[in-house]
Amino acid sequence: MEKQYKTIGEDAWKNNVEKVNAELFIFTYGSLVVQLVKDYEDYAAVNKQLDKMGYNIGVRLVDDIMARTSLERCSGFTATAEVISKVGFKLFLNVAPSVASWSADGKEFSLIVDDNPLNDFCELPPKAVQDGLWYSNVLCGVIRGALEMMQMQTEVEFVRDVLRGDDTSEIRVRLLRMLDEEVPASDD
Asked: 35-65 b/e with 16+ CB inside 10 Å = b?
């Protein structure tokens, strides 16, 4: 199944995505983070804003992924992890993090991001590292928002980041509960 998702992600990247100049995207994101730091002057608040922005993006990305790939709803959390890694990340960032460190109950996993494009051309000041800035925290929000649209309430957080001196970047995804599908209120 993993190879199938990898192929779907690569095909979608090659054929169904309008490409944006990577450097422009990276510098624009960096400018956004710098502006948030200036506006909030508190790294915890910046992390929260990045997560919130990512969540709003993730809510909309699910439909885009479905439209571009013709994927059907995932059969379980394991398949969902593979789709996030091999299709979602590939489609939008042209990277495919590895899925690792599953919990015994199958409700937690890590995405190991060896090459995070958002980190290119970036170096965090020591104070930002010390005070807890997670520069790419927008990715956590994107994952959380996308999974919520798939009826999965999750907790998503960075646990390691190369910009903070770690050897790799790791995002931890924890399934809290499956959400009930709600029928929209009628227009009567």
From this structure: ebbeeeeebeebbebbbebbbebbbebbeeb
Say yes or no to pLDDT of 46 above 90. yes
Strand order in the sheet with 152-160: 98-100, 108-113, 169-178, 152-160
Please, what is the Cα angle at 118 between 114 and 124, to 5 degrees? 95
Which DSSP string corresponds to 60-109?
A: HHHHHHHHHH-PPPPSSHHHHHHHIIIIIHHHHHS--PEEE---TTSSEE
* Rounded Cα gap, residues 31 and 153, in angstroms: 30
Residue 27: the pLDDT is 84
Q: For the segment 88-116, what is each residue's pLDDT rounded down to a tens digit?
A: 888 788 888 999 999 999 999 999 999 89
Return the structure tokens found at 25: 């995207």
Residues 124-151: what's their mean pLDDT?
91
Provide the β-strand partners of residue 112: 98, 170
The residue assigned the tokens 């200036």 is 38
- Please answer whether residues 54 and 142 qualify as being in contact, where contact means their C-beta atoms are separated by less than 8 angstroms: yes
How far, in Å, CA of 27 to CA of 22, rounded? Answer: 9
Domains of the chain: 2-178 (3.30.1380.20)
Residue 172, H or E segment: strand 169-178
